[in-house]
Design a protein that fits this description.
Shape: elongated
Oligomer: single chain
Number of helices: 15
Helix content: 25-40%
Distance between the termini: 48 Å
Radius of gyration: 27 Å
């Protein structure tokens, strides 16, 4: 679990700000929910691996509850509860705090925030385009380019068809998906053993690995349309076909995707896909849906690596200080006026020597004003740009009411 000191919050605000601005730009509506959810709902919908990582407990009324490991089951519950009242398609977004009890590694914590984008009630591949395009927009707003990341896309439906053509029956596909999702995280020999444990023979295991070498997606109309529309939407350069993208969660049904940094230094930045059957499994009516989960941990590490450790805490705003108690009210009036004009103002709380004031101001502010007795007498002080050292005059007269 994490504590966020001001320097950490600067990065969090940078990331969250891009999340919110991108979602607002694409007209996603914000929603929220309690961090505690029914264990039964989460364990049924999360998939085998996540189910083992859920923090769960009994409350004083012996109800089996849990801290959510992800947001999609909660979204499905909320939509199913009011499905007859809502106007579809829905475009919903949230930044949710999530918890998973797992081994901590680079890019993975036991607590994280996850930005979710979901479109519910739309079968068109344009829903995938909107979700992926909005996530790409967020990364660009953070200062990254498609030279820094790529979104790897595939189709669970296409992979299922190819497995069936190779003689692997549909009832074994879930086990195959679970094993193949671990490719790159463990040796192929261990994955092959998992496939055999799932009931596959040697020939079927060999056929499965042969499928994973597929480079052509022309047999999948949905993927063809996705790449075509991404070109129109302006982010086709961010997409690559990768049949190895499986997604471990059991509820995905069609197109799936994961975003990775191009240098391969980090875990997936975000991931998601189509989950057309999830609402029906909790009592809702059949409804097409596409969703995305975008955690804050990996992207923050990536931003620090690409933009610099201090990129989120670059000095900004104006620092206002004063030499003696006699200038305190004048400094306070100046701060009030600048703030009313929309400036971010860091007001010193006690008299300081000029050297000490400017040393501290340079850590947080882009400009600074130091008010001394002579400045009050003249009604004018000097506004200093702390990067260029250039100075301009600034009037100390109070704002007109």
């Amino acid at each position: 679990m994490r504590d966020f000191y001001p320097a950490d919050m600067a990065w969090r605000e940078k990331v969250f700000g891009a999340f919110r601005d991108a979602a607002r730009g694409a007209a996603f509506e914000p929603y929220d929910a309690c961090v505690v959810e029914s264990f039964e709902l989460l364990s049924r919908k999360a998939g085998e691996e996540v189910s083992e990582q859920i923090y769960h407990f009994l409350d004083k009324s012996e109800r089996h509850l849990a801290l959510r490991p992800e947001m999609t089951p909660t979204l499905a519950r909320m939509v199913a509860q009011r499905q007859k009242e809502l106007s579809f398609p829905l475009k919903w977004t949230t930044i949710a705090q999530c918890f998973r009890y797992e081994r901590m590694t680079k890019g993975r914590k036991r607590e994280h925030y996850q930005w979710n984008l979901d479109i519910v009630g739309e079968d068109s591949v344009l829903a995938e385009v909107e979700v992926i395009g909005t996530a790409v927009d967020a990364l660009r707003r953070m200062g990254l380019t498609t030279a820094d990341f790529k979104v790897h896309v595939s189709s669970r439906r296409m992979l299922g068809e190819m497995l069936a053509e190779s003689g692997i029956p549909p009832e074994r596909h879930a086990q195959v998906f679970l094993a193949l999702d671990k490719r790159g995280k463990m040796p192929d020999e261990e994955i092959a053993a998992m496939l055999r444990d799932g009931g596959l023979g040697d020939a079927e295991v060999a056929a499965t690995f042969a499928i994973m070498d597929t480079k052509d997606f022309s047999r999948c109309p949905e993927l063809v349309e996705l790449f075509r529309l991404a070109e129109v939407a302006g982010f086709a350069d961010a997409l690559v076909f990768d049949i190895g993208v499986i997604r471990g969660l059991s509820y995905y049904t069609g197109i799936v995707f994961e975003c990775f940094d191009t240098k391969g230094e980090f875990r997936a930045i975000f991931g998601g896909g189509r989950y057309d059957n999830l609402l029906t499994t909790i009592g809702g009516e059949p409804t097409g849906a596409v969703g995305l989960g975008f955690g804050d941990v990996v992207v923050t590490e990536l931003l620090k690596a690409r933009l610099g450790e201090d990129a989120a805490t670059e000095p900004k705003g104006i620092a206002v200080g004063f030499m003696t108690p006699g200038e305190r009210e004048c400094a306070l009036r100046l701060a009030r006026r600048l703030r009313s004009e929309g400036e971010c103002v860091a007001l010193a709380l006690r008299p300081q020597k000029p050297k000490k004031f400017f040393a501290r101001a340079g850590e947080t502010s882009a400009k600074a004003v130091f008010v001394g007795p002579d400045d009050v007498a003249k009604g004018v002080a000097r506004l200093k740009d702390l990067a260029t050292r250039e100075e301009t005059e600034i009037c100390l007269a109070p704002a007109k009411s």
